[in-house]
# Entry
Amino acid sequence: MPSQQLASKPVDQLNEEEATSELARLAKEIAFHNERYHTEDAPLISDAEYDALRRRNLAIEQRFPGLVREDSPSKQVGAAVSEKFRKVVHAVPMGSLDNAFADQDVTDFVARVRRFLRLDGEKELAFTAEPKIDGLSLSLRYEHGRLVKAATRGDGQVGEDVTANARTVAEIPNVLSGDFPDILEVRGEVYMRTADFAELNRRNAKAGKQIFANPRNSAAGSLRQLDTSITASRPLRFFAYAWGEISKMPADTQMGMVEAFASYGFHTNPLMKLFTDVEGLLAHYHFIEENRATLGYDIDGVVYKVNRLDLQARLGYVSRTPRWAIAHKFPAEKAMTILNGIDIQVGRTGALTPVARLQPVTVGGVVVVNATLHNAEEIERLGVMIGDTVIVQRAGDVIPQILGYVPDKRPEDAKPFHFPTVCPCELKTPIVRDATAGGAEGVVRRCSGEFACPFQRIEHLRHFVSRRAFDIEGLGEKQIEFFFTDPDLPVKSPADIFTLARRDAENQIKLKEKDGYGDVSVGKLFAAIEDRRRIGLDRMIYSLGIRHVGERTAVTFARAYGNWQAFHDAALAIAGGDEHARAEMDALEDIGDAAIDAVARYFAEEHNRKLVEELAAEIDVIDAERPKTDSPVAGKTIVFTGALERMSRDEAKAMAEKLGAKVAGSVSKKTDLVVAGPGAGSKLKQATELGIEVIDENAWFERVGGAA
# Structure
């Protein structure tokens, strides 16, 4: 069976041979991801996906105990030590915890502990519960109150010496206070607060440096630097919660040990609590889960530990996993957080999208600060208000979305969101709603500013220079972005393109002095721009990027109005409410209300009119050639299919339309003629079935030769 199919086969359906193969695959794959996570601080999969791999490995081993491998992931902790650092052998190994994913798993864990200790239900058994910090595990060794060694977990037996780096972390004391043991190894988690993480990424982005996926990666990467000045510049923090070698135990309970750490000068987690029943543990878990976004740092679950240390000693370990502790993980792809506000983003096509501004929370291994709300109808459907506690979901690389809100956590000052009626751009132009095919209002709202809207300009400029519009050689998408942001020769409108050479001659800073340009390339660009000062009417109309006015509609307008002035005057008249002008445009074949309304909105906007008139002053628009009415194919509907050898598909289309024919993309009963080249397939078959005339390319030229 292929490995991909085997990987998805249920464990209880595997035979021994398949189980052997699957355990080998899992050992290799988990080892790879351990290396990416622990050594390189660059995981490729989410915690949920990683946990699923380990659970599958463990389930197979439990079903086939005789197949457990020497390199089994269940026998290992972390990953091999990086060669960049000196090795440190832990006096007491650093283990890992089993995971619980459901409330029932926690109930089962408590029951297992009681059975092992032979405690009946009447006997009190206390557990601590504390947030599981999503950071980098660190062991700190103190001798006579002074920090002498700091080491990462590594593979649990051997870690990396990061002493010099640890000394730069403000929350790690170099000298202890209080009544401390002579030998003390304190263990805990190095982490970064979400606000500090966001600020670090902001600075790095501005400086063109590495952007981290989440605070855990950022903290791990910061601590594991060869240059300690880099570590010192990062806002790292530390929570203490465990220990290794100790010359004298300061307490006989888990809670007492952590309280002792606090007295020595360490930061401990204030959410660590003591409970004597499962109900209390689970209530605390759900309390932390609901308030996760307000903590200011990343957690991925809650850890439960038997409180009495003598009972921990009796319970002992299974491999390197303690029987006396378990990590209750949060659902990996969902989280609760606070909706702080809703911003409106204007896309490059003018579409307005409401974006939720969230209290930062990690979902699926990525810090989420924004989530899409799609449209006004979605906000209404969800019923969310600003200030609500909301449930956020993220799946793979999909943009995070809000699933709903928690009603009983709605604050009294929660505010409803009112969708704006004007664009947030500087023009404050009205927002219009798309119409459906049936004429009803759609859900998408758009800025009516079109080309004039700052949010849409760069996309409109790209369209303006595209192949089927002005098609200016040497002025593609990248060059448009360059000129759009260039402070010396900015291109903010189509007319600016045609004044480039003139402005360059007047500028002190010349284009040839900028990266990517020289005398030759500048000369070619200016020549290409000059070559496009004469443009066909249909291309001119299409280049404006009027919504619902595509290439075919532009051709229809060009043929109907003949010259730029006539089209321009008709558009202005329709924008001004002239019903006669509208009726004339409506009478054109294939021109409907959507296109007419779009033309009206475009030319009704003052800024758009200014852009168009400035452009028209710089160029010469060639009058459209009226289609022939006396050609052999005038008035006929033509379909071209297969590979054309004597002309391109665009040339064939242009020729047919020039001769007064209509070119269709598919065969129907209305088709009059099909021109089929080599490789013609379904369209040719359909034409034959409908009895439509079919000719080859040579016959086409023979038929229209004189007329063309």
Remarks:
- Residues 78-82 have pLDDT under 50 and may be disordered.
- DSSP finds 26 helices and 26 strands in the chain.
